[in-house]
Design goal:
The structure holds 2 protein chains of 2 kinds. By secondary structure, chain A is mainly beta. Chain A has no helices and 10 strands. Chain A has a 6-stranded mixed β-sheet, with no helix packed on it. Chain A has a 4-stranded antiparallel β-sheet with strand order 1-3-8-7, with no helix packed on it. In chain A, strand 7 (62-67) and strand 8 (70-75) form a beta hairpin. The N and C termini of chain B lie far apart (34 Å). Helix content of chain B is 0%, strand content 49%. Chain B is mainly beta. The chains are: A mainly beta, B mainly beta. Chains A and B meet through strand 4 of A and strand 4 and strand 9 of B.
């Protein structure tokens, strides 16, 4: 099974900051990667698919990059509603594994 | 507007069988992949498996021996059963639909989640 490793596990930042999370795959997954945002008590919300395509309705301050084994999610100018947990998920090979998550907290 | 609504028993004893159903409202039922994902309290997401319109399934190998997914195309719903549950199966269970027609990847539409406690 393909392992996804997210870093950091948690991050403290302030409103207005720019932050970047990374997701590393244990083998080449081309661009078959999604990023989700999850808030407590809610289902995950799709942000990015195919590694870099912004989902409809997602603010343009979110962007995804990468291909192969190394991927990144960047949020420019953090807003209060962005503090949440972020997960990556690969769709290259069954089973469709998730990373362990990065929790973004307010500094 | 696609909506997924899920239901099932929320409290089980060890060795019992977990059963959940997810109904789909709006949009097309055929042509998509229908997925189950779970999340233990305070932990990350685990992909359980998916089923397509034809009934073809893909399961997480760690659950495969206890897992059955089925689909009811007449009523636009799909189901999950997990046999011989233990405390390790305590989680919020989500159903979800694939993003693209004919493809299994990416989940735009999710159910509301159902907490199952063993």
């Amino acid at each position: 099974a393909i392992q996804l490793t997210q870093s950091p596990s948690s991050l403290s930042a302030s409103v207005g900051d720019r932050v970047t999370f990374t997701c590393r795959a244990s083998q080449d997954i081309s661009s078959a990667l999604a990023w989700y945002q999850q808030k407590p008590g809610k289902a995950p919300n799709l942000l990015i698919y195919d590694a870099s395509i912004l989902e409809d309705g997602v603010p343009s301050r979110f962007s995804g990059s990468g291909r192969g084994t190394d991927f990144a999610l960047t949020i420019t100018s953090l807003q209060p509603e962005d503090f949440a947990t972020y997960y990556c998920q690969q769709f290259h090979t069954y089973l469709y594994s998730f990373g362990q998550g990065t929790k973004l907290e307010i500094k | 507007q696609v909506q997924l609504r899920q239901w099932g028993a929320g409290l089980l004893k060890p060795s019992e069988t977990l059963s959940l159903t997810c109904a789909v409202y709006g949009g097309s039922f055929s042509g998509y992949y229908w997925t189950w994902i779970r999340q233990p309290p305070g932990k990350g997401l685990e992909w359980i498996g998916d089923i397509n319109y034809s009934g073809s399934t893909n399961y997480n190998p760690s659950l495969k021996s206890r897992l059955t997914m089925s689909i009811d195309t007449s009523n636009d719903h799909f189901s999950l059963t997990l046999a011989s549950v233990t405390a390790a199966d305590t989680a919020v269970y989500y159903c979800a639909r694939s993003l693209r027609y004919g493809s299994s990847g990416y989940y735009r539409h999710w159910g509301q989640g159902a907490l199952v406690t063993v």
